[in-house]
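Our preliminary data section would be incomplete without showing what the modeling component actually yields. Below, a chain of 113 amino acids is followed by its predicted structure, encoded as tokens that our downstream tools consume directly.
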Amino acid sequence: MTSVREAVENRLGLRAAGEDQADAIVRGTITRYDPDLPVAFQGGVANQVDVTRRLVRLTVRVEIYDQNAGRTLWERNALTVEGDYETGREQDGIDKALNLLITDIVDGAQSQW
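Predicted structure:
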């Protein structure tokens, strides 16, 4: 999740600080990870079905907490993002899902400013 942290910092213009010195804290927990959900099929030979596209689904709990005010600025308890990919290219799906996660976190943070 380093890529998520770095992207959130860059897109929001934030800089990393120790938790005891930070004005705000972004916390996240992966609550569910489904890496291999079939979503597209194609008929194969001998009555077989081949999966041609798959889906990564990631559900997280995210909170942006303002330490100065002592309150949560924004949170989602079950933020779900997905990324589709061709069979054998799971990383493509993960990358798509993480990009959506980053966008949702940034949009959520900006909605509070």
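The mean pLDDT is 89. DSSP finds two helices and three strands in the chain. Preliminary results of this kind motivate Aim 1 of the renewal.
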